[in-house]
Design goal:
Structural class: alpha/beta
CATH topology: Rossmann fold
Strand content: 15-25%
Strand order of the largest sheet: 2-1-3-4-5
Shape: globular
CATH class: Alpha Beta
Order of helices and strands: EHEHEHEHEH
Number of domains: 1
Radius of gyration: 13 Å
CATH architecture: 3-Layer(aba) Sandwich
Largest sheet: 5 strands, parallel
CATH superfamily: Response regulator
Distance between the termini: 31 Å
Amino acid sequence: MRILVVDDNRDILDLVERVLLTYGHEVVLARDGLEALQQDSTSSPDLIVLDVNLPTLDGWEVCRRIKARRNVPVMLLTVRAERADIERSIEAGADDHLPKPFDISEFLSHIHTLTQGASLARNSSTPYP
């Protein structure tokens, strides 16, 4: 599975890339919102892991634009974890919202769930803070 990971923090990019490669995924990286849109167009990832706080375009806007073009699962991975932030993620079309810092096993569980077709909007058991 090809996964686009977008974060302006190099340490997060390296960690997530390493974990996903270990589990056999192909990983494409981007460091800002515009690069994320370009990578989505050129590499057509099967899943997108997207930070909210990005240079050029925030993750919510990137998510909106991608979801307007095609249906691909998007996980927002962010320090913004208030209820209003989660609601904004849903409104942007995100399928998941995982707060930073995160546990690797929890992250992988979310990746697995997204690859199985679940989403925040459809999953009534999603806990809210």
